[in-house]
Amino acid sequence: MKALYLEAPGEEPDLQIRDVPLPEIRERDALVRVAACGLCHHDVAVMSGMLRRGVRPEIILGHEISGVVQQVGGSVQSLQEGDRVVATLTAFCGECDRCLSGLQYRCRQGQGVGHAISGGFAQYVALPATSLLPVPDGVDIVEACVAACPVGVTIQAISEVARVKPGETVLVVGAGGGLGAHALQVAATQGARVIGVTTSPGKMQAIEALGNVEVILSTEDLDFSEIAMALTGDEGADVVLNTVGSAVFNSCLASLSQFGRMVVMGEVTGARANFNLTDVLFRDATIAGSTGTSPSNIARALGMMSTGGVKPIIHERMNLANAAEGFRLVRSRNAFGRIVLIPPQA
Predict the structure, then answer these.
(1) Which of these, 137, 120, 151, lies nearest to 3 by C-alpha position?
(2) Residue 307 to residue 245: CA distance in whole angstroms
(3) 120 and 164 in one domain?
């Protein structure tokens, strides 16, 4: 099969297509022909060399996987050949205390797909059958690749970490990226007032077109927190979803209301955040991190996608061989939503 390998990380990573054997499946595994795999910032961070911890050498990257089951192991009864599926972001044991509590994405024996075990930047991937969920008939198989990340990830951050309530104001920072564009939509389904922040004038119209979203253009001349305060009558946002990380941390903190909650969902630059603790203390603020998602939230994501509650935002579908161009688009922040890589289907 054809598979994409990272030969050398860097500002211009060396990405090469190799011919490699089909992955072997075990008794509880399934072999999936990959229809599409999203290019997440996690992949870009590994390609650039910013993220190295825990990444197995010679790994096939890619964790946002959709495809069709080609073969199942002898013990698998939940799947059969021809089933359309999406993958969880972590292969989990299903037996530890975390798995039994619905926290499979933090399984004590968990292995990150495209991080510790090979992922979806290839024609085929072998995964435990428990890590595969069915795709509803009304969902396009290519668009389905965003069900776990970013849609499921934002559902978890909004519903289970921030616990957004109807009528609250949610500020999404990095609204034009893959996480942000879907977080806007998920927050709106919770009955929140949604405000998106972007540094890209060219993305404002696309963000507004999502509906039920107000947009702030962040510039060097005016901190977006000042506009957020003005739009909320100096109350601030009840919830700030920070998909960018340290680069905007202080502005996110300054945008919070009394008793506000900031959820940090990403880190783009790999830098440290320096802030005054009194800004947290006297706001009675909560700061939490959120990455990953559970199978139940991936199922919720697929349900929202099938009913039109959340529209998958795909900037471009690219051949796997053009991954370097996808890398440049994500790094330049010129993509609205996700870049999706399509392996050869023959």
Answers:
(1) 120
(2) 32
(3) no
> Over the stretch 256-310, which tens digit does the pLDDT of each residue have?
999 999 999 999 988 899 999 999 999 999 999 999 999 999 999 999 999 999 9
304 belongs to a structural domain:
no
Token pair listed for 113 = 């797909």
Three-class secondary structure of residue 188 per DSSP: helix
Residue span of the structural domain in which 122 resides = 2-140+312-342
Give domain status of residue 296, yes or no.
no
User: Into how many domains does the chain fold?
Assistant: 2
**H helices of 308-346, where?**
323-332
**Separation in Å, CA 65 to CA 8, 181, 218, 281:** 23, 19, 33, 41
Cβ proximity of 47 and 1 under 8 Å: no
Between the alpha carbon of residue 314 and those of residues 323, 329, 341, the distances in Å are: 15, 13, 11
CATH of residue 336's domain is: 3.90.180.10
**192 and 114 co-located in one domain:** no
Q: Of 197, 172, 174, 206, give the one whose Cα is nearest residue 186.
A: 172
The verdict on 174 and 263 lying in the same domain is yes
Per residue in 183-192, is it b (16+ CB within 10 Å) or e — as a string?
bbbbbbbbeb
Residues 6 or more apart in contact with residue 146 via CB below 8 angstroms: 38, 64, 178, 182, 312, 313, 314, 338, 340
Indicate whether 265 and 217 sit together in one domain.
yes
Residues 167 and 223 in one domain: yes
Based on the domain organization, do 204 and 122 belong to the same domain?
A: no
β strands within 77-232, DSSP E: 84-87, 90-91, 111-112, 124-128, 132-134, 169-173, 193-198, 213-217
pTM value is 0.95
Residue 244 lies in a domain: yes
CB 104 within 8 A of CB 273: no
Q: 216: which strand partners?
A: 197
Read off the pLDDT of residues 54-105 as tens digits, 9 standing for 90 and up.
788 899 999 999 999 999 999 999 999 999 999 999 999 999 999 999 999 9
